[in-house]
Amino acid sequence: MESVDRKLRIAALQASAYEECSVAPSKVGLGNPGCYPFIVAGTHTVEPLTHAKGYMNQSRIALVATILASGIVLTGCETTNSIPYKASAANVIAIQQSLQPKKVSVAEVGLAPGVDESPLCRLNGPVKVAPGKTPSQYIKDAFQEELLMAQAYDVKGAPIDGRIEELSFSSVSPAYWQITMAVKSTADKGYKVSVKYPFDTSWTAAGACKNVADAFGPAVQELLKQVVTNPQFPALAGK
Fold first, then answer.
1. pLDDT tier for residue 47 given thresholds of 50, 70 and 90
2. Which has the higher per-residue pLDDT, 91 or 76?
3. Domain boundary among 58, 75, 92
4. Does residue 112 sit in the same domain as residue 223?
5. Residue 83: its pLDDT value, please?
6. Domain end: 43, 60, 75, which one?
7. In this structure, what CATH number is given to the domain that contains residue 168?
8. Which residue segment(s) compose the domain that 87 sits in?
9. What is the mean pLDDT of residues 109-124?
10. In the chain, how many domains are there?
11. Strand 158-170 and strand 176-185: pairing?
12. How confident is the model at residue 155 (pLDDT cuts 50, 70, 90)?
């Protein structure tokens, strides 16, 4: 495939050659010897300068479209959040008040069928919530961190399972993350929580998608708040 620079150089040469053409149509080899042959529908007919200019305008439009398409391809990459998760003080306190002296563990956080774990953001490609982590892994690690900070985590404690039933976002105003998760344990059938976390967006695709990735951590904090402040949370630890 020819490069855009090469196409631009060819177009410039064609424009220069067309300027030298006679206004009257002529056959290749006839008329002005400096005329650049414009091949139309397989014939070797040299079109008038007005048609040549029209052709050049079409060529330039095509080149602009190629350049724009190249820009789209180049910008179509993933957006990654590099902000590490930080346990919420409010969540830690809620866990301590609900569970002490009991302790729990986190078994798995999985996805319900049909939930997309690599949602796309405009033309910037998929959103990566953390380097090397899927959203479900991120939520599991965040839940473990909250429990560890509350000194309520024990690998021998009742294992809590999470299941993400909805995972979506909007990058246009009003921008938000929508996350729904069901939790249960070997001690209790559990319950379901949902959060719609709003955040600021941007006019540019790159800025808006960066905001989407950066807002996932706070959205997970709010999701886990709904988990640990639920009246049924203590039952997950068992009797």
1. very low
2. 91
3. 75
4. yes
5. 82
6. 75
7. 3.30.160
8. 79-237
9. 90
10. 2
11. antiparallel
12. very high
Residues, the chain, total? 239
Contacts of 31 (CB under 8 A, 6+ apart): 22, 24, 46
Closest Cα to residue 167, out of 123, 206, 114? 114
Among 5-9, 39-43, 64-68, 130-134, the minimum mean pLDDT is found in 39-43
* Distance of alpha carbon 102 from alpha carbon 157, whole angstroms: 8
Q: Under DSSP, is residue 24 helix (H, G, I), strand (E, B) or coil?
A: coil
Kindly tell me if the per-residue pLDDT of 152 is higher than 70. Answer: yes
Which residues lie across from 130 on neighbouring strands?
133
Q: Which two tokens stand for residue 235?
A: 């039952």
C-alpha span between 230 and 33 (Å, rounded): 87
The alpha-helical segments, DSSP class H, found in the chain are 4-19, 49-75, 89-99, 135-149, 205-228
d(CA 153, CA 190): 18
